[in-house]
Amino acid sequence: MAADIHFYFDPICPFAWMTSKWVRTVQEQRDYTVDWRFISLRLLNAHIDYDAHFPPEYEAGHTAGLRLLRVAARTRAEHGRDAVAALYREMGTAIFDRSPVDGAQRGTPAFVEPVLAAAGLPGALAAALDEPQWDAEIQAETDEALALTGKDVGTPILHFEPPAGVAFFGPVISRLPGPAEAVQLWDHVIALARFPGFAELKRSLRERPQLSGLGVRVDEVGKQEDWHGGSRRQKQDRG
Question: How would you classify the pairing of strands 224-226 and 167-169?
């Protein structure tokens, strides 16, 4: 059966994780199905000089994200799409809802093996961290996501009511709404998605998400930062 939403995620993106938590909150109250798909920030930025454009920790973090997506791709091939939902839940929980994890360490067997166990999956899947043969599949889904939205976007990308429905970057949220607010927000987003002429609502100022892994408690407001094209690039491309 076709899913109601295609959700394109990179497991190291905090905003994708926060949005996924909101989507799962809505799923608990509404009869929606989600197909969790891949978009790699490392492949998306393959043409970028990381040293010149990004903060110093970005390349290691994005590379770890690609390595984790390899595990997700092999999981989907061997255990089906539902297994990806469970795996992403455990990956995000380990990265963002517990003590901070160093960016590069997220792409190691020491990190991913307990995550696989928590998702009820075999530890042997961790071998995919070092299996670049999955990169073509990840690149194809990254390209698929960008074909739906255009290139000046980040993660997550949500495709509503595929294949004919609209897709867009976001919604990007920094605070997790409660159950009632989650459904209200969902209805507003769906209304926008269903309007044929809708293209964009945008602001680049964002609060740091309320995630333990980023050092922001649920009872505090994260520091406001300016993000460009879905990232904290220090230098922007021209032309």
Answer: unpaired
